[in-house]
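cron nightly-structures :: item 1 of 1
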Amino acid sequence: MIVLDVEEKLEVKPNCLTGIIRSSEHRERMRNMNKKLYRSNTQKMLTGVCGGIAEYFNTDVSLIRLITVIVCLLFGPGILIYIAAAIIIPERTDGDIYDADYRDYEGK
């Protein structure tokens, strides 16, 4: 058996960017934890259910609408699920603003 006795001194320098990255990741996690599902006021065709789901998942509302139409046509209870969602999901008030509203105005 060979035993090597090697001492290495490693200098650990704090990385100032690590704190920034961790704090931005923390803010993103906290923002996601505080998200609530609402019916949309701005992106609605019938009741705003698809617009609210698109805002919640931060995706395109047309994709959600297309998926909803396909589910309603293929599965019988799809329309009943949509009606139940329209009744159960609360409508977003003026105080509840999503980032998507600001993104539209900034052109991003």
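cron nightly-structures :: done
The CA atoms of residues 70 and 76 lie 11 Å apart.
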